[in-house]
Amino acid sequence: MYSRRMAGVKMSGGVEWAVHCCVVLSQADGPVPAQRLAEFHGISRTYLAKHLQHLSRAGLVTSTEGRIGGYVLTRPAGEISVLDVVLAIEGREPAFRCTEIRQNGPLPASPAACRRACGVARAMHAAERAWRDSLGAVTIADLGEGVLEDAGPDTFVHLREWLGT
Amino acid sequence: MYSRRMAGVKMSGGVEWAVHCCVVLSQADGPVPAQRLAEFHGISRTYLAKHLQHLSRAGLVTSTEGRIGGYVLTRPAGEISVLDVVLAIEGREPAFRCTEIRQNGPLPASPAACRRACGVARAMHAAERAWRDSLGAVTIADLGEGVLEDAGPDTFVHLREWLGT
DNA sequence: CTAATCGCGGATAACACCTATCCGCGTTCA
DNA sequence: TGAACGCGGATAGGTGTTATCCGCGATTAG
Ligand code: SF4
Ligand code: SF4
User: d(Cα B70, Cα B32) in Å, to the nearest integer?
Assistant: First the structure.
């Protein structure tokens, strides 16, 4: 699916799907099945279902089983941040994982010096905090307004019509 | 090497090695061979060599071939940020990669609306910018001072003695 | 000059994670 | 009852990370 060489810190592609689904759900009146969400975005239904289950386990969406089931946002769109979605899909593990190599080799750091994280780890964690703070400041409701600005004020009207089909 | 399950946005472990090597190099008088750097940190010599080559290609370190060769920092430690090292090892690709799913499905976004990145992509890129700004504000020299605070003022004296062995 | 040391780049393999699909199960409702 | 739906496990292919090994060219001690 990805043609170019890629490297480095990378984010799962499912995050993009999940965020878009949340924006759609914020405009829906009732439960929207995964089938419908996948159709709307032109993506794999079975794989999207996996991501939606992650959102469900994280408590961001509430699932309704049975005949006319589907997904509904648990909280108002203004109370769900992009960070919530990213953490639900990607997990809560920090990107930087310290392997404590300062304790290896001929001059290992003393146990006293290792009581707290070293400067390297502190710098990495501070950067991740800045990243999370930035994502935490944007809500699904904010993204919905952005769509209206970019695509016109009647976009969600068409969306609701299609969902009701 | 990693026993626990991990998920999500992740950073290559080689970044930690590379940053530590830069701190060591900032305290060395002459070229330090990869063999020595690997010994000091108790890590794989052959694999570390790969990362050092990345640093060399990025221009952060200058390599000397031959009998008494090794690596030297190209710039002063105060002019090399942690971000420089991370980008050299991990590459410059952004973590979030947009697949433009808004152009799919029964209600695709109009070409006019796609002239610029949508709100989702903008939020992701803003968060990455905050992450990079945070990492760019910390230099190798700063980390060296942190080591002195944590491990005592004679730490680098011992280091230089061992390097001279 | 010779040999030892060193950096460089390619080839290779094991492993983990991402992507994607399929199936069976339980639930709900027409 | 049957159709639609969510849930979880099993599975498979692709990609990136981790790690090692080899040959090559460069440099220097002896
Ligand atoms: S010095 Fe910092 S990054 Fe390095 S091993 Fe220790 S805690 Fe981890
Ligand atoms: S809406 Fe944004 S994140 Fe989604 S496909 Fe379009 S540009 Fe990418």
Answer: 4
The helix/strand count (H/E) of chain B reads as 7, 2
Determine the atom of ligand 2 nearest the C-alpha atom of B117.
7
* pLDDT tens-place string over residues B108-126: 888 887 878 889 999 999 9
**A5-44 residues near strand D (Cβ < 7 Å):** 5-8, 10, 31-36
* Cβ within 8 Å of residue B108, ≥6 positions away: B102
Residue ranges lining ligand 2, Cβ < 6 Å: A 16, 20; B 98-102, 117-118, 120-121
Closest residue (CA to C1') to nucleotide D21 in the complex: B46
**Does the domain at residues A3-93+139-163 carry the CATH identifier 1.10.10.10?**
yes
CA A101 to CA B17: how far, in whole Å? 8
d(CA B37, CA B17): 9
Residue ranges per structural domain of chain A = 3-93+139-163
Whole-angstrom Cα distance, residue B117 to residue B125?
10
Answer with the residue of higher pLDDT: B71 or B7: B71
Give the pLDDT score at B3: 37
